[in-house]
Amino acid sequence: MNLILSKALIDCFIAFGVVVGGALLAGIGSVLAMSPPSSMMVDTASRLKIWALVAAVGGTIDPMRVIESNMMEGHLSPVAQQVLFILCAFVGAHAGTELIRMICRGTG
């Protein structure tokens, strides 16, 4: 159980880091291109959300295969684990997006 929770926590922080890091780098690129960084950061964070989720759960279709094959065989524990990992990655990506929105609020 401890291994499952640690992987879920790591997935959450990976997704958070992808969104925040990507948005911050987009902001730096925007400054170098002489355009307003706040709108670019918010837009990039929103667009990176799904990719952060994909990166956190493994970057492949394997988690979906695990869900499908175990669901068909009636093994719900691996299905629940994969759903937990996906949900934790979504929470991390959403938290990163909201942090960028909060940072950029009131600018521009």
Q: Would you kindly provide a written description of the structure presented here, covering whatever features stand out?
A:
With 108 residues, the chain is mostly helical. The protein is 85% helix and 0% strand. The protein contains four helices and no strands. The chain has helices at 2-32, 37-56, 62-73, 76-104.
**Poorly predicted runs of 5 or more residues:** none
Give the biggest beta sheet: none
Beta-strand portion reads: under 5%
Q: How many β strands by DSSP?
A: 0
Alpha-carbon distance between the two ends: 46 Å
Helix % is over 70%
Backbone structural class: mainly alpha
Count of helical regions:
4
Rg, Å, rounded: 16 Å
Large-scale geometry: elongated
Q: What is the N-to-C succession of helices and strands?
A: HHHH
Mean pLDDT across the residues is 88
